[in-house]
Amino acid sequence: MTTEAQHDQPTSRTYFLVLVGLLILLALTVGAAFLKIPGHTWGMIIALTIAFAKALLIALYFMHVKFSHKQVAAFAAAGFVWLGILITLTASDYITRNHPASMNYKGEPRYLQSDYPGR
Amino acid sequence: MSQLTALEHDSYPAEQFEDTQQQSLAATLGMWTFLATEVLFFGVLFTGFYMYRMRWPDAFADGAKDLKWYLGGINTAVLLGSSYFVALAVEAARSGDRRRIVRNLLIAIALGVMFIGIKFTEYGIEYHDHLVPSLNFSSVSPEGQPRATQEQIFMTYYFVMTGFHALHMIVGLCVLAVIAFFARRGKFSAAYHNPVEIAGLYWHFVDLVWVFVFPTLYLLRHP
User: Which of the four CATH numbers 3.90.480.20, 1.20.120.80, 3.40.50.150, 1.25.40.10 does domain B24-219 have?
Assistant: First the structure.
């Protein structure tokens, strides 16, 4: 958007390569969904990592963040940073909610000092 | 709105700006500010979805399996393609090639309409499969498999997320059509093409949201 950035604007070829990259990532994420991956969180992590990679390609190239003024990058990141805070704080409640102090993270009882009167 | 004023009075830059670069940057920053509110709008839906998914992993995995993943996948490819042609239209606008703007925008619009068509076909299939909560959700699938009650939470999120996304698509298609109309009338040149860029940003953002919607709803098939 700025004059100094004007000369290294992406070309049609760049856009085409980005599209090819996005379609490859799409094939990867569909393929990964049908793999038998042990542990349910891994499927989620793989799907979301690929989604973030695709989002980054779209934002940097199609939406020109890479070729724009730094202010644009800051404005673009702001919404996602606040969303990160929202998800982190919400998850920190919901993940720990069903594990009261008397249980460890596996849901096993955590013995209190009073259970062992001898010690 | 500054670019609209510039359009009406044919003065560019608009009088409140020092130069065209400043006006262009202001328009871009304004659009990204709006898009940040959109990130949070869709963000709460994703947050809620994943919290419920952790609570009911089996029902949510079954829900994903009840959707047609290949239709969602085809739609992702269609939308990525549409975004690509909008990027080409913006590039054409920068070089002031009026015919190439219109041509690329029309292809992008055609792909967008195709996306909406496939999406509504899917809604039809889901209605037929008795998957619509509060309308016809059935605790037994057409194949005779039992469905968890909590799958209704999944389906509600599915309809709200894809529904709002489709609404954004329809708005975006109208915006692209208006831009194509003005481009045809010769309103944009290599010197002045802010509206094409800003409309492009909106369309790419709708694409970006779908990139998260697709794996979230269709691909988390294992509890």
Answer: 1.20.120.80
